[in-house]
Amino acid sequence: MSGHSKWATIKHKKAAIDKVRGKTFAKLSRLLEVASREGGGDVSINAALRTVVSKAKAAQMTNEAIDRAIKRGMGETDGKVYESVTYEAYAPGGVAMLIDILTDNRNRTAADVRIIFSKQGGSMAAPGSVGWQFSRKGVILVAKSASEEELMTIGLDHGLDDITADEEMWHITSEPSQVYELKAAYEAAKISVSSATTTMLSSNTVAVTDPAEAKAILKIMHELDDNDDVQDVYANFDISETLMQEVG
């Protein structure tokens, strides 16, 4: 899990820049449209939409913008029709990656993703060759100012599975259905939660020690994250803090 944890921290910092560019909101809008189109616009009965709305509010997306996206998904206003697809790939060093896509042009997106990997020495993989390594989990990030003991004491009553840490953040995992209950429990105890989401975590990690491979992997992650059609990227790399700093 360590590789994913490090990327989660990087992405958390990067989110502030993404908000300025509007990328975070654009991606959330697509998710809202698809969730409302597939399950209806009522968050009380559409669990998928309820999850995305929680993500959108955590990212400080306005209620008006959320409502507009839901209405587009419901067909109440004009909007594009997005197709959901997951690509599987390998980055340098044998690192496995899953890429969740929402696109209105599958051929364009497939070509864009393929180019990102080929430029850095990676390759696309056959369906099923990567996905079996991953399972969905809830992940909460909390600043290290909170104590591990307090997080554990509260979390065990609300679905906590495990706690790990990097230099700045606690990384708390739970079953995906309980992540927002766990977040609410921490906030009720006056513990500030930096982010709470569901993600895919790998059962295996690949230790990356070669600087060139580490740089290529992080470049792939950043370029995928910058692509408007890419919603999420999951990977099983383990790059040390020292090497992370060395390759930037």
Give the overall shape.
globular
For the secondary structure, the number of strands is 10
| First-last Cα distance | 20 Å
CATH third-level topology of the largest domain: Alpha-Beta Plaits
Q: What ranges have pLDDT less than 50 throughout 5 or more consecutive residues?
A: none
The H/E string reads HHHHEEHEEHEEHEEHEEH
Instruction: Look at the structure and give the CATH class of the largest domain.
Output: Alpha Beta
Gross CATH architecture of the largest domain: 2-Layer Sandwich
Number of helix segments? Answer: 9
> Which strand-content bin applies to the residues?
25-35%
Computed structural class: alpha+beta
Overall number of structural domains: 3
